[in-house]
Amino acid sequence: xxxxxxxxxxxxxxxxxxxxxxxxxxxxxxxxxxxxxxxxxxxxxxxxxxxxxxxxxxxxxxxxxxxxxxxxxxxxxxxxxxxxxxxxxxxxxxxxxxxxxxxxxxxxxxxxxxxxxxxxxxxxxxxxxxxxxxxxxxxxxxxxxxxxxxxxxxxxxxxxxxxxxxxxxxxxxxxxxxxxxxxxxxxxxxxxxxxxxxxxxxxxxxxxxxxxxxxxxxxxxxxxxxxxxxxxxxxxxxxxxxxxxxxxxxxxxxxxxxxxxxxxxxxxxxxxxxxxxxxxxxxxxxxxxxxxxxxxxxxxxxxxxxxxxxxxxxxxxxxxxxxxxxxxxxxxxxxxxxxxxxxxxxxxxxxxxxxxxxxxxxxxxxxxxxxxxxxxxxxxxxxxxxxxxxxxxxxxxxxxxxxxxxxxxxxxxxxxxxxxxxxxxxxxxxxxxxxxxxxxxxxxxxxxxxxxxxxxxxxxxxxxxxxxxxxxxxxxxxxxxxxxxxxxxxxxxxxxxxxxxxxxxxxxxxxxxxxxxxxxxxxxxxxxxxxxxxxxxxxxxxxxxxxxxxxxxxxxxxxxxxxxxxxxxxxxxxxxx
Length: 577
Known about the structure:
Elements: H1 9-19, H2 31-36, E1 39-44, H3 48-57, E2 61-66, E3 71-76, H4 78-86, E4 90-93, E5 96-97, H5 121-124, H6 127-132, E6 141-146, H7 153-156, E7 165-170, E8 175-176, H8 182-187, H9 197-206, E9 210-211, E10 217-218, E11 226-231, E12 239-240, H10 241-253, H11 255-258, E13 260-265, E14 267-269, H12 279-289, E15 293-297, E16 318-324, E17 336-337, E18 355-358, E19 362-365, H13 371-375, E20 386-389, H14 392-409, H15 415-425, E21 427-431, H16 440-443, H17 450-454, H18 468-472, E22 478-479, E23 482-484, E24 490-495, E25 502-504, E26 511-512, E27 522-526, E28 534-535, E29 553-555
Parallel strand pairs: 6-11, 6-13, 7-11, 13-15, 15-16, 16-18
Antiparallel strand pairs: 1-3, 1-4, 2-3, 5-12, 7-8, 9-10, 14-29, 16-17, 19-20, 21-27, 22-28, 23-24, 24-25, 24-26
Helix pairs in contact: 9-14, 10-12
């Protein structure tokens, strides 16, 4: 495994902790209780079978198979954990999480004349122009790993009226469409969305409702796309790394059976390691290696630098930040980057997010009897089934819908091609004087443009110089072109193919002092692409003071709370006591 040439002591210590087990424990106060009690872990070996045999050999209890990352989820005593670690296996603590959303009053209103209320985001990204040409995502399936699905007509039926829910899997209950008829999974409540988050995300991407307003049109970005509902979070938003990894593995195994081309991941965790050392990231990379277009949310911890979450920090995938129209969707002059949207670069120097998309006060379907709807009924539209919610979760759903439109029009595109064309066609935010409204570390290549992406002819501009297969095998890892000066200014470097000869890039938007910049009114111009990777052994390390903090896995969707984000969550998988 390649390592940086010069690492600070604190970072070497953090990497060592992950390599030796991912968890530090204090002395047990009751040796008997410590010996008998168990904790959930992810145990990884050269093969999944080897991990299973090793866990069983020490008397551990396996809870789920995670073949996609050569691992199992298991409950282990401290003694069992120590024995497995001593035998050279890699262990990660697999912690439960609880999702919690921050709330605020969102504007409600609109017509209740029988048509669904108007959603503006298809127009903002020019998806409505494609709908008029018959490009609606038909024939492309998007898998959503989330809290489940409310099978209301606008989601059950596509633009041609046929049932378009292709498949589903309940990770929590361990049931899928192989074991039961798909309809039974909904009738038995196994895929039912007891939270509401999953339904909201799915509706943003694919709702086939017809909205009202001055010009009627489809509500969702890709209203003809098919749905694969994978329930990995329960009604209270609880999940674990093991459950999410199992869900990704199911998607990969069922890719061809259900025609899955796009995978939407609207959640994130705080980074705890290099991107390649994180088990959830490894599963996501394996999905990308199977040519599934993985779209992830950037996170809602902005606007500070280096706040991109897991798995958005995976360099291969499409990571999405959030744009807001300031409650005036018909007026672009006050559009801005959402202040909560996480910003790059990643600790390995990659520019993230790749693009931004609408994510402020998004109106979409929500079950009235789900946890979110019952807790905050005041955020429903007057029709009682559409709900206002914000976050990079919703922005990721927009881009998943755009990817479906692209793949309907050009089904031969690879995942790298989709990423390239999304970035090449994006519209970079500039003010009236031609200055960047935000840096590339905040907006990536800019606001996604569905029409431009569908008709783009750009190729070879994403993930250059990187090999996901070698990355997964531990043979080679990569760093990006971002760097930081001693006084905290972030900038980009232009490097040769080897990554050894690099010069600073001069230009507006490429240098950032970690400030939230915005001028009233800006122009969307052609996007900038920074998606190459360089071999990590060259030692791109510049993050003095960047300490791996406790990881949290949480949805990147929330409701406004007087402009403040007050989201709470519980430790996820690696914790230092």
